Every structure is written in structure tokens, then in C-alpha cells.
Amino acid sequence: MLAAALVLTTCSCGGARLAPEIDAERLAPNDGGNGYQDGIVIRNAIIVGGDPAELLEAGSSAPLRVVLINKRDAPDRLVSVSAPDAFQGAQLTGGGVDLPVRQAVGAGPEPLVTLTGATRQLRIGAFVPVEFRFQQAGATRIQVPILPPSSGRAGFSPSPHPSAPGGPSPAAPAVSPSPASPAPAGTEASPSPAPQEGGTD
Hints:
Layout (H helix, E strand, L loop, with lengths): L1 H9 L9 H4 L9 E5 L2 E9 L6 E2 L5 E9 L5 E7 L4 E6 L4 E3 L4 E2 L7 E6 L3 E2 L3 E8 L3 E10 L54
Parallel strand pairs: 2-12
Antiparallel strand pairs: 1-2, 2-4, 3-10, 4-8, 4-9, 5-7, 5-11, 6-9, 11-12
């Protein structure tokens, strides 16, 4: 928990720390950037790059995965995301992300944000300053790492790949044969007559 607390407090720019009620919660360690802005918890922010040996090429786009938790007393909304040091723009799902009170948003397979137009080559493991702006809570900037999609991390996994055509189908469950019906009490089951050989006299 000490390592998780250090990550949570040092990844948020501007010296912002988590509110006491957030510090008291058991938050799992993760590989992403974390922060807190006036009641909004930012968890496990990750820019998804390519394979570890590959560079994110200039001009390319990259999904930004993040979980947002609204600890405020009223709903809020993520209205913009920017990373001008490394990307020309950003697209938010639906043009903005609603943040209901006391609910985690962004834990599904689809990213909330896509960063567009990388201004230079970016390597896996690099950190990019990213600003999150909320309608009520204001804005904060945190350092977000670029990680490969295969990295194991709590809360995020790459979208599942469809099964390859012609791949093996899951085995069907074994079906047990139905037990023979018992003969009624007081009777004996008669064997079926054997077929007669040859013609009749």
C-alpha cells in the first residue's frame, strides 16, 4: 500500500494530494498515471502504444485509457483532454464523458479518449503530460506513461480479439445417456423376439 500511495501522490502534477477519504480506501497499485482534482479521482491513465520494440510514429493516434471516479456531491463531466507536448489533439467519446456521483467510469474495453496527431516519435516507457479538464472540478495535469497493449495492469486489458476463422470450437459438454426406464412392479421385461431365418412352412 505504501508504494501505491507514493504513486498516487507523485504522479499528479502541482503537488495535489488525494483527499483523506480517498487515502483511506484500498486502491490497487497500477502501472498508469494517477491524480486527484477537487473530488475527481483519476486512476491508471495509460497511453496505449505498440509493441515494446516499436515506436509510436509521428502523426499517429493512440488510445488513452483511464478510470475516473467522481467523489463530489453532484455529477460532473470530463469536457476536454490535451497533451500538447506530444499530440495535436484529442477526441472524447461522445464529445464529453459524464461522471455520475460515486461511480467508476472508463473501466470497460473501449477507451474514453483517443489522442490524435503525434508530433514526434514516442517510445514505449516514455511519459507524456496530459491535462484533464472537468466542467465543475476544473483542470489538472498528470504524467501518463506510454505502455504496450499487452502489459498486465489492473483495470485495463486490450479489447478481446475475435477467434481466428477455422479455429477450434469449444468442446461441447458431455451428455450422459438416459437411464433405462424401470419395468412396472410385478412384471418382467420381455426380450424382443429374434428375427426368423428363412421362409415359413
